[in-house]
Amino acid sequence: MSIFSEVPQAPPVAVFKLTADFREDSHPQKVNLGVGAYRTDDSQPWVLPVVKKVERLIVEDSSLNHEYLPILGLPEFRSAASKVALGEDSAAIKDNRVGGVQALGGTGALRIGAEFLRRWYNGVNNTATPVYVSAPTWENHNAVFADAGFKDIRPYHYWDAAKRGLDLSGFLDDLEKAPEHSIFVLHACAHNPTGTDPSQDEWKKIAEIMKRRNLFVFFDSAYQGFASGSLEKDAWAIRFFVSEGFELLVAQSFSKNFGLYNERVGNLTVVARDNENLTRILSQMEKIVRTTWSNPPSQGARIVGKTLNCPELFAEWKDNVKTMADRVLLMRDQLKAKLQALGTPGTWDHITQQIGMFSFTGLNPKQVEFMIKEKHVYLMASGRINMCGLTTKNIDYVAQSIHEAVTKVQ
Amino acid sequence: SYSSLPCLNEEGQTFVLPLVGKLKKQISADPTLCPEYPSSLGLAEFTKRATEFALGKNSLALMENRVFGIQTIGCTGAVRLGAELLKHWYNTRAAWCGPVYLSSPCDGNIFEAAGIQDIHYYFYWDAKQRDVCVEKLLADLEQAPEQSVVVLSASAHCPTGADLSEQHWALIIQLMMRRRLFPFILLPVQGLCCGDLQRDAWPVQHCASQGMELLCAQSFSHCFGLYGDGVGNLLCVLKQSSLLSAVQSQADRLVRALWARPSVGGARVVATVLSNPEEVKHIVERCMLIRERLRERLRLLGSPGCWDHLIKQRGLYCCTGLNGQQVEFLSKRRHVYLLPNGCLNVSAINSSNLDYIAESIHLALTSAL
């Protein structure tokens, strides 16, 4: 008798199933607007030119060895990554109260942060501390915090389907009503999946309540630079909260803005009250990393570290990032313009108001089904599309398909 | 521990397979390789070869399709994933908390991190005899409750370097079958022990051939000098092929909340090397040669004590028997870094540093400290 005889089949991950279905589809005009990865106008993945350059430099450098990285990761990567989030002139960095933990992508950073909070935040091993994630959010947020041991994971109001925008009053209300010390997972920019971010004034309101009610800030920052094309703009919320004196965590991913999806490059930035706290926190982080992957992989961190620390390479990287962001912005403009030209019922301003890789189109599940089955345009059941899946070659077809979905299917 | 620091020489270099360097260059120049998200299960070519490497190509379990492998972040990642899988699914009615039996000495923290509190240690290393004590080991396992998980090192036990013979293994596995204990086998340095890749993996293959279910955590970091790339594999052998899809899907789900997917670079290199067994044999032979030469050097220098254990022990590690003071002397005065317990990594020694290292050990033994 197997000890595993009663193990149930886990449901497939929706976004990967979508891509699998897309791959099997032989329709000549099929379009994949599902998984969140950048594509060029030729629908190809893009190796950033600066990354190609740096990879060659690394491979040619025989002085580099294949050593284990320290448990917390490559030092020059960690400090540069935290600096990118908090800014060159960050007072917190100058005060020596900022540290980084190299992690396996954004997911790894979230997991280490979650494990730390479960063990050491709001008491010791307090698995009852509520964790709030936005409604909707990246579906893996739930799994990461649950597997880290948290028992009480709740949604906070975020997306207002009726007005296709931020449900600010619902959000603020949830902040007021949350038990003190609850943890809130905030998307630093380019909210996944809605593409809808709070404005600066709205962030200020959010911060005011969080400070007053002692709520914990955990930023998820997977798209810095990718959203607006500007690193500074995309980090505004993080920097604002830090300037307001919050102790907080930021899970950073370099998968998208460096195109390093398979190197798993992430960083958990810790902003502590002072250096003494930081030291103790990092010592516990180290213990957690030791029992998760022990030593993080070096390749991706070397690429990112080298790029961020060299002024010429850094400038070239910012340029590459802007190229990606600009293409997305162009597709947003064009999609909205085409829908308006077609006279597609409804308003389509949200396409250009939303930001980042994703857009919540507002298509309902029936319309999504029509898009997939009849038009071979693949998008998530929530109506989420990846703008990077749009190209100058397929945008007319997609706009036409959306038009048909909206006019034929209620 | 599962991933000890490699021993560094004065230049701070570890041994790097020339082939690895060459392969990395090839990979970086290959335009067809795409930077996309790998599967959460890892590079298929790697897991296939890694799994075959451990079980042997003709394994019945493989042919009956009741085996899966998942690429992990090094051996630690493999152990952690295995621990999480057991924690969530060993007893589907409630979260499983143990008991887990580990060798003494060993690092139990990974199971604790996964939320498994009930950890015990079975007798392993007899410091006086400088060897394994199988009688005491068997006595301890005899006391373990049924359905306990037992963690065993297939070869190159870390940190002692002292291994169980095939006869020992046969006894242990027989006991485990009788007492319904679940084997979780560590295979961190397969092939680097006795020159025979199959022999190092014999315990895994024997368990599988006896029809047991098992988990095996493999690491390829040491084998190929890929310390910075953390390439590991969690291998799972099931009793029935009908369970494979469900168990693998649950392991996949656990991966996605740990690190989402592994990094690919190192796995590509390993997959290529594994299809090239001559290279691996070369490292193995080299390690054996180094052990012999080190013992010979110490003899010529007139170092006190008996150094037969250098060649009696197998694998990447060697437990020198040096004490804490001597280890400190080596690192502070000679820049030769051993683990605090006196174990050193044989693969870091080469012809240009062998004399220096032998001299250093000699000085550590003979200087007034």
UniProtKB/TrEMBL annotation, chain A:
A GO MF term: L-cysteine transaminase activity
Short name of any one Pfam family annotated for the protein: Aminotran_1_2
GO CC annotations, alphabetized: cytosol
Subcellular location: Cytoplasm
InterPro entries on file: Aminotransferase_I/II_large (IPR004839), Asp_trans (IPR000796), NHTrfase_class1_PyrdxlP-BS (IPR004838), PyrdxlP-dep_Trfase (IPR015424), PyrdxlP-dep_Trfase_major (IPR015421), PyrdxlP-dep_Trfase_small (IPR015422)
N-terminal signal peptide: none
GO BP annotations, alphabetical order: aspartate biosynthetic process
EC numbers on record: 2.6.1.1
Other information: In eukaryotes there are cytoplasmic, mitochondrial and chloroplastic isozymes.
Name this polypeptide is given: Aspartate aminotransferase
Species this chain originates from: Myripristis murdjan
Gene (UniProt): GOT1
TrEMBL record, chain B:
Residues annotated as domain Aminotransferase class I/classII large: 19-361
GO terms assigned for molecular function: L-aspartate:2-oxoglutarate aminotransferase activity; pyridoxal phosphate binding
GO BP terms in the entry: aspartate biosynthetic process
EC code: 2.6.1.1
Similarity-based family: Belongs to the class-I pyridoxal-phosphate-dependent aminotransferase family.
Subunit structure: Homodimer.
Name recorded for this polypeptide: aspartate transaminase
Organism: Myripristis murdjan (pinecone soldierfish)
Gene: got1l1
